[in-house]
């Protein structure tokens, strides 16, 4: 069901479909929610799917003032507070990924899982940047004119605002990424407009991230390989952390989660705690999705640790998953 809501003086259009845990999709720059047609919009079969269109995009009219990542992030925060009022799975594509990342940094309480598709944290990571003098592809302009209440003639105004934002607005520093402590999936094409080097820096900067490089795709990967991309996102949203048998990166220094010691038994030995955190297990409820044998394969988790975890789960009315 499509509707409008007043957000920071903007009459924001959004679509609301499906039932279940809320998933919010943030489209790219100069486009609209049709970015997700035939790919991630199929998530409505198992989630409540919300597709807002930001100021100057899609069905949402432009207003006076700039269209920056920070402005759009604040609009998104206000939208989440008003429409959902709880933590969501937040998915952003392209410019929408930059907006989603900024939201996760500003308001960690609003995001429980984060998916960033073909986006970055700083303009320096982009191979291509829009300019106000660009001659945009005719299909892009036509698509804007099909739904924009401002009419196709307003497209150059929006293009100039977006170009100014990309080329003048400061991005975030790698250190800012440490504030995003929720599980995150970083997805990119192997021939994207964001450099792979920048994508790796984004992935490494997020404390609890997974990385997916979709082979044989460009910046339009959601349309080029919709089944693969949707499957990767669905798996990330619906599965708990899977312990790896030979962790390297995740076996390093503890993540930002280590400060949240109340989420694991306080009498758990440090080697076991480090192993669990490195594998992405930071809360007791996550252990209900794996068996005791799975956890026992982690280097540093022995019988005593398994026993302490089992007792803590039982005290909370939980248990390990049955053996497969």
How widely separated are the two ends? 41 Å
DSSP strand count: 8
Total domain count: 2
Under CATH, the homologous superfamily of the largest domain reads Alpha/Beta hydrolase fold, catalytic domain
State the shape.
elongated
- Specify the CATH architecture of the largest domain: 3-Layer(aba) Sandwich
Biggest sheet features: 8 strands, mixed
- Residue runs with pLDDT of under 50 for 5 or more positions: 253-262
State the CATH topology of the largest domain.
Answer: Rossmann fold
| CATH class category of the largest domain | Alpha Beta
Model description:
With 324 residues, the protein is of the alpha/beta class. It has two domains: 2-238, Rossmann fold (3-Layer(aba) Sandwich); 249-315, DNA polymerase, domain 1. It has helices at 69-84, 95-106, 138-147, 155-168, 196-205, 221-224, 226-238, 270-278, 292-296, 303-315, and strands spanning 2-7, 10-17, 22-26, 48-53, 88-93, 111-117, 184-189, 209-214. It is elongated, with a radius of gyration of 21 Å. The model is unreliable at 253-262 (pLDDT under 50).
